[in-house]
Amino acid sequence: RTVYVNGNYVPENEASVSIFDRAFLFADGVYEVTSVLDGKLIDFHGHIARLERSLKELGINYPVDKDALLEIHRELIRKNDLVEGMIYLQVSRGAAADRDFMFPSADVKPTIVLFTQSKSLVKSPAAERGLKVASFPDQRWRRCDIKTVQLLYSSLVKNEAAKKGADDAWLVLDGKVTEGSSNNAYIVDENNTIITRELSNDILHGITRKAILQCAAELDLKVEERAFSIAEAQKAKEAFITSASSFVYPVIEIDGAKIGDGVPGPIAKRLREIYIEANRAAAI
Ligand code: PLP
């Protein structure tokens, strides 16, 4: 693979960053994952807008040049012959001369890294099968709206979920689901209303979430942005998750309880189809 590091395209085994990089020592960095279909980027501008917001919230001094970033994404797609998959982008506060909790001086340059990952997104066993999820207390820091590389707790619960025979973890704060380990969480009630937690600092403002709520509106489905409990989810007609790299995955089981008939629901399936259709057409 050819990757991008601080202005250079290099083979992945020649890419390097400092051991003093603050992403490495303090998880002091932010990231984005943009999907690629037919060699084109899905919702690139949405991801770049959120990147700018994450950088601003943390005061990382990286002036976002949208055109330049688009060109880097496209160049990586070309160099790696990427047809379907994702592009990972990370910006950290950079490498100071030493390990210090205080931010480095303004002349320390941020570190920027991008790489591609090939993955079949449209044809997906997980989408056909549906996911089993297990719930865990949400013990992440309380600024989940910032897409930082501080992913240890999410990684931990995903592994704990796997030990329980589940595919993913849903996180619960004060008795209500916040989101999945790396995705937004939804249920569908008996009136076909889609319910998903409202935007706040407790969840990542998913780029796919925004697009899916638009798809729901096009299908004339009602949407309620509010928190729900695991017990309510277990009684729901359907459940599903969304993220850039999964689009929509149905959820068929929560903490061992089958959702509906225990098979992917028609609303999740339909939303997945129209999301793919619309975003494939709009990809750049
Ligand atoms: N929530 C969390 C915690 C995530 O890590 C992600 C994506 O990685 C999402 C939600 C979904 O966001 P998006 O649709 O922008 O990929």
TrEMBL record:
Q: Which SUPFAM superfamilies match?
A: D-aminoacid aminotransferase-like PLP-dependent enzymes
> Per the entry, which co-factors are needed?
pyridoxal 5'-phosphate
Record-level GO BP terms: amino acid biosynthetic process; branched-chain amino acid biosynthetic process
What's a single GO MF annotation on this record? L-valine-2-oxoglutarate transaminase activity
Keyword Transferase found: yes
TM helices/strands, residue ranges: none
Tell me the route in metabolism or biology where this protein functions: Amino-acid biosynthesis; L-isoleucine biosynthesis; L-isoleucine from 2-oxobutanoate: step 4/4; Amino-acid biosynthesis; L-valine biosynthesis; L-valine from pyruvate: step 4/4; Amino-acid biosynthesis; L-leucine biosynthesis; L-leucine from 3-methyl-2-oxobutanoate: step 4/4
UniProt-listed PANTHER family: AMINO-ACID AMINOTRANSFERASE (PTHR42743), AMINODEOXYCHORISMATE LYASE (PTHR42743:SF11)
UniProt entry keywords in alphabetical sequence: Amino-acid biosynthesis, Aminotransferase, Branched-chain amino acid biosynthesis, Pyridoxal phosphate, Transferase
Q: Which reaction does it catalyse?
A: L-valine + 2-oxoglutarate = 3-methyl-2-oxobutanoate + L-glutamate; L-leucine + 2-oxoglutarate = 4-methyl-2-oxopentanoate + L-glutamate; L-isoleucine + 2-oxoglutarate = (S)-3-methyl-2-oxopentanoate + L-glutamate
What's its top-level EC category? transferase
Per the record, its GO cellular-component terms are: cytosol
Keyword Amino-acid biosynthesis among record annotations: yes
What EC designation does it have?
Answer: 2.6.1.42
Family membership, please give it.
Answer: Belongs to the class-IV pyridoxal-phosphate-dependent aminotransferase family.
Extract the Pfam families matched here. Aminotran_4
Per its record, how is this protein called by name? Probable branched-chain-amino-acid aminotransferase
Q: According to its UniProt entry, what is the function of this protein?
A: Acts on leucine, isoleucine and valine.
- The superkingdom of the source organism is Bacteria
